[in-house]
Design a protein that fits this description.
It is a single chain. Helices cover 79% and strands 0% of the residues. The protein is an all-alpha fold. The protein starts with a helix and ends with a helix.
């Protein structure tokens, strides 16, 4: 229990120190996969700076809604096949019918109450809830919760915390129940109530612009937009991580993870990690590069994709050399007789190279494959880079934040390479 409390306290402190960006990242993550709610950061920030309460509420609402859409995407892409394996088909259809009828209300209730919100965002994708209904329910319920917190703090100051713990704790269920009762009473009384997306101001223009963009650029446009957004988000996360590293504010995170890995050491795990360590050897890595380029060339029937695979690989080394020379953070375990940038560990070059190179290889190999194979390739990529990162930490070669930084920069470079690949394919 003490370990969990320390983790919560450390997590809260980390996101608080990152201010608005930390709040945005936490709210986004909580809506799709992370267990800690953004309220633990929103409330202290609003108390510390009441005049910015509305701003913080707006950031949290937008980030949580976008995170909910990401959770919806996770459910739509990967949730249904898993559900079909563990639940009888007739029961799946019953649940799906109920969710299609009341799903919007389920999302709204989960968005306002302490119910785990991410469960409902993912379920919405699994059961293919109307995306407009989901978006409106998510935006309104999340905004109602976060703006209520900020307004209460602006009015009551620190005294608002006791009020909010009751209203948005057990009391939130009473509020949700009251709203549902009023809704169904109005419906029984034949009072017309509409929440169609067409009623939202500007909806028609936005929809028309999106449809025009997709019609003009198709999958190419989606890749470009997705790549740019991904690079921007992960780039901002790296900048914040780097600033915290320079201010020496991440010791609690590094040593907490290091002590955990030390506590699980065993002969069986040693064997697994030694196997993972083999692929990090330069000879094995260059053999993997050669095999990957040949496979990509065979599948694409052109020289372009193998060349871009090599550019992604080589660029990873240039980027790590530049960043390590810039930050000059000593390694956790400096290599013997190492010179220049090899004595530095931030960001982890191994994590950066494997993230970008294996990610681009997965993209190039499955570029024209079916969705199931793309999902499988993405899973293999994530498991592979996670294993490499864990191996580095397990043997004491890198700080965990070095590994995290390598992942973040690797994703930025990977997204850039994908965008470059798509631009070359589209125009040349």
């Amino acid at each position: 229990m003490n370990g969990i409390l320390e983790f919560l306290a450390g997590t809260k402190e980390f996101f608080l120190q990152n201010g608005t960006i930390g709040l945005f990242v936490l709210a986004f993550a909580e809506a799709s996969f992370f267990p800690i709610p953004p309220d633990i950061v929103l409330i202290p920030l609003a108390i510390a700076y009441p005049a910015g309460g509305i701003w913080y509420a707006g950031i949290t609402s937008i980030a949580s809604t976008l995170g909910g859409l990401f959770g919806y995407f996770i459910g739509a892409r990967a949730g249904r096949p898993l559900l079909d394996r563990f639940v009888k088909q007739k029961n799946v259809h019953k649940i799906e019918n109920m969710f299609s009828r009341y799903g919007g209300w389920a999302v709204a209730v989960a968005g306002f109450t302490p119910i785990p919100y991410k469960v409902f965002t993912i379920a919405s994708g699994v059961f293919r809830m109307n995306i407009a209904t989901f978006f409106i329910a998510a935006l309104l319920s999340r905004s109602a919760r976060f703006f209520l917190e900020s307004v209460a703090i602006m009015a009551l100051g620190e005294n608002a915390t006791a009020f909010l713990s009751k209203l948005l704790g057990p009391g939130s269920f009473l509020v949700a129940a009251a709203v549902l009762i009023l809704y169904f009473a109005a419906k029984k009384s034949h009072i017309q109530m509409s929440a169609l997306p067409e009623k939202v101001p500007g909806y028609g223009r936005v929809k028309k612009a999106v449809e025009k963009y997709i019609a003009k650029y198709g999958e190419f446009g989606i890749y470009i937009m997705g790549g740019i957004i991904t690079a921007c988000i992960f780039g901002m996360m790296f900048v914040k991580l780097a600033s915290e590293m320079l201010e020496k504010e991440l010791g609690w995170l590094d040593w907490g993870i290091i002590y955990f890995f030390r506590s699980i050491k065993s002969p069986a795990i040693d064997a697994i990690m030694n196997a993972v360590k083999i692929i990090q050897h330069p000879i094995a890595l260059f053999m993997l590069l050669a095999a990957g380029m040949m496979l990509v060339g065979f599948l694409s029937k052109s020289i372009r994709m193998p060349a871009l695979t090599f550019v992604c690989f080589a660029g990873s080394f240039l980027i790590q050399w530049s960043l390590k020379s810039l930050f000059q953070r000593p390694r956790l375990a400096p290599p013997m007789q190492a010179v220049n940038f090899l004595t530095y560990g931030f960001p982890s070059g191994t994590a950066l190279v494997f993230t970008a190179f294996l990610g681009f290889l997965a993209f190039a190999v499955t570029r024209k494959a079916k969705k199931q194979r793309k999902i499988l390739a993405a899973i293999v990529w994530i498991v592979s880079i996670a294993a490499v990162g864990a191996c580095r930490i397990y043997f004491g070669a890198s700080y965990p934040t070095d590994i995290l930084a390598g992942f973040l920069v690797g994703v930025v470079w990977l997204a850039s390479c994908v965008v470059i690949s798509e631009i070359m394919e589209y125009y040349f």
